[in-house]
Amino acid sequence: MEIQENIINKVAQSGLISLDPADFHAQGERVIYDIAANLFQGLILREKDFREFVKSHDWSQYEGKNVGIICSADAIVPAWAYMLLANRLAPYALEVVFGNEEVLETVLFIKAIEKLDVEQYRDQRLVIKGCGDVDVPVSAYVALTKKLTPVVKSLMFGEPCSTVPLYKRKD
Hints:
Helices cover 29% and strands 21% of the residues. It is built from five helices and seven strands. It has helices at 10-13, 47-56, 79-89, 101-114, 138-148; strands spanning 16-19, 30-34, 66-70, 95-98, 125-129, 154-159, 162-168. It has a four-stranded mixed beta sheet with strand order 1-5-6-7. A three-stranded parallel beta sheet has the order 2-3-4, with helices on both faces. Helix 4 (101-114) runs parallel beside helix 5. Residues 7-13 have low confidence and may be disordered. It is an alpha/beta fold. The protein is elongated, with a radius of gyration of 23 Å. The protein folds into two domains: 10-26 and 107-168, no CATH class; 30-93, no CATH class.
């Protein structure tokens, strides 16, 4: 007598749609420009020297890169100096932000998430994937939750086989 077992994939039958936040990871190298290198004696930004640097510097080296601008020195840097850098970087860089690597990554994820067409998830049961090869900032999960909650039937976090419920629309 032969015993035949049918394995049923309940996850596949659940109707859950999985969304990977890593899909919103922007392409391009990340670079941090530290204005501290432009400070006189590490303390003061001299306008004339800085403007000469900005004029003569090869900004094309930032072509296709995502750039964060910071000042790692304990110095007072006027806002116009950051603005001048942004102005010179903008024609070359994919993105320019004021902030470190974390701020840059957050801005890149948020901009990509803002472009998401949520209509494809209308009235769906959605799982936002919780782990993967790309380091996804918490801010991206928050942005996805905010954007998707108004349209989905339910929202969960994790993997389809093990989810944490976050939201369920009352019908």
